[in-house]
Write a structure and sequence with these properties.
Layout lengths: L5 E6 L4 H11 L5 E8 L7 E2 L2 E5 L11 E4 L3 H14 L2 E4 L6 H10 L4 E4 L5 H16 L4 E8 L9 H11 L5 E7 L5 E8 L4 E8 L3 H14 L5 E3 L7
Parallel strand pairs: 1-2, 1-5, 2-4, 5-6, 6-7, 7-12, 8-9
Antiparallel strand pairs: 3-4, 8-10, 10-11
Helix pairs in contact: 1-6, 2-3, 4-5
The chain binds nicotinamide-adenine-dinucleotide (NAD).
Catalytic activity: (S)-2,3,4,5-tetrahydrodipicolinate + NADP(+) + H2O = (2S,4S)-4-hydroxy-2,3,4,5-tetrahydrodipicolinate + NADPH + H(+); (S)-2,3,4,5-tetrahydrodipicolinate + NAD(+) + H2O = (2S,4S)-4-hydroxy-2,3,4,5-tetrahydrodipicolinate + NADH + H(+)
Subunit structure: Homotetramer.
Protein name: 4-hydroxy-tetrahydrodipicolinate reductase
């Protein structure tokens, strides 16, 4: 078991997720040491709470790290993936909207480094996906519907998480239907309904705070240490 702090590079550090990652990592110095934080533009100040900050154009000069955690935008994804391959470091990425070419690059990188790319880093959703797969395989012929609710600013529908849950059901041979609601400031709710004749099961996950995604990404970062190269799911790294 690893006892020294994991050296992290936080990529997308000025964003909502980046800020949560910096705050939560700083609260556990015995487990995490942030050695660098990267933002799109030249940062000011250069050092915040002892963490050196770098612009995206300075990525080649960041200090040695064990794992890069990337929550940026698709245009920031290729450079951080290339850096991890070059440094033989692990990558945890939650950046959404990456292209199929970027997905292919991710698959190629997984032959040389351990990595996780996921649409949802909540550990609760990882467990929900397992439950959905189990229920779908035990209940052939039942109707499966996924209802997801998010805040009004979310553009994509169904959510990436709903599609991931749908894939879990489809892997057991089921056909899945989706419904999406956009209302208020809902962080994220997913209900997977299994309907048979005269009975119904509902599996529900509610995220009430964005920190769950940052906490899950930090957890996964530590679990990737000393793993062989590969493309892992959050589900593979729960304990
Ligand atoms: P945000 O807009 O608040 O922050 C984006 C960050 O990326 C900023 O720090 C910005 O400086 C940085 N950035 C942009 N372009 C860059 C580049 N070319 N190089 C380096 N850095 C660059 O966004 P957010 O809410 O923090 O979300 C970030 C990403 O994470 C989005 O893709 C979002 O959809 C995704 N997200 C994923 C999960 C999950 O669990 N998988 C959860 C929340 C958000």
């Amino acid at each position: 078991m690893n006892t020294s702090p994991t050296r992290l590079l936080i990529h997308g550090a000025s964003g909502r997720m980046g800020q949560a990652l910096l705050r939560l990592a700083a609260a556990e110095p015995e487990r995490y040491q942030v050695v660098g934080a990267v933002t799109r533009r030249t940062p000011s100040p250069r050092v915040v709470d002892g963490v050196p900050h770098f612009a995206a154009s300075e990525l080649a000069g960041v200090p040695a790290f064990d794992v890069a955690i990337d929550f940026s935008l698709p245009e920031g994804f290729d450079p951080v993936l290339a850096l991890c391959v070059e440094r033989k470091a692990a990558l945890v990425s939650g950046t959404t909207g990456i292209s199929s070419a970027q997905q292919s690059a991710l698959a190629a990188a997984a032959t040389t480094i351990p990595l996780v790319w996921a649409t949802n880093f909540s550990l609760g959703v990882a467990v929900l996906a397992e439950l959905v797969e189990r229920a779908a395989s035990a209940l052939p012929g039942w109707d499966i519907d996924i209802v997801e609710s998010h805040h009004v600013h979310k553009k994509d529908a169904p959510s990436g998480t709903a599609l991931t849950l749908g894939q879990a059901a489809a892997s057991a041979g089921a056909q899945v239907h989706y419904a999406s609601l956009r209302a208020g400031d809902i962080v994220g709710e997913h209900t997977v309904q299994f309907a048979g004749l005269g009975e119904r099961i509902e599996l529900v996950h509610r995220a009430t705070h964005r920190d769950v995604f940052a906490r899950g990404a930090l957890h996964v970062a530590r679990k990737l240490l000393d793993r062989p190269a590969g493309d892992y799911r959050v589900r593979d790294l729960l304990d």
